[in-house]
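input
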Amino acid sequence: SVRDRTVGAASLREVWYSSDEGEHWWRQPLPPWVTRIYAVAVAGDDELWIATREGALRWRRKAVGTGQWEHVLNGLPAREVISIRAEGGWLLAAASNTVYVSRNQGQSWEAEPAAGFEVTGAVKQEERLYVLTLQHGVLEREPAPSAAGLRSGAE
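output
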């Protein structure tokens, strides 16, 4: 994940951070209870988010190459957050059959209406939210809440 000069990268158990377009990298040790990383996102100034088996974690830089992890539970599920992205001032997370949206840099999260099937991620374009799924491809969220909530992008 990239934002301005900041780059974040992850393997299954490690996160790496660069604040100078990849010239120098620092490994960010995870809490010992984190067992699997699914995704990493760069958000804000010197801030990383990771989606893990143990939920979502936010890392904030304290000094050059160092920071602190925080387990985020303010509207997100405690386990199995499988995707997280920073897009256009929003943070988007996916878990099970729900997309979670934060419009305030992760201070709070709102669950979008449940999809009724497994969601693997979400993407924002302008004010439109697209939900990524394994079985149904890419679906567009209706602009106003409705009983259906989602429709195929091909319609």
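quick obs: Confidence is low (pLDDT under 50) at residues 144-155.
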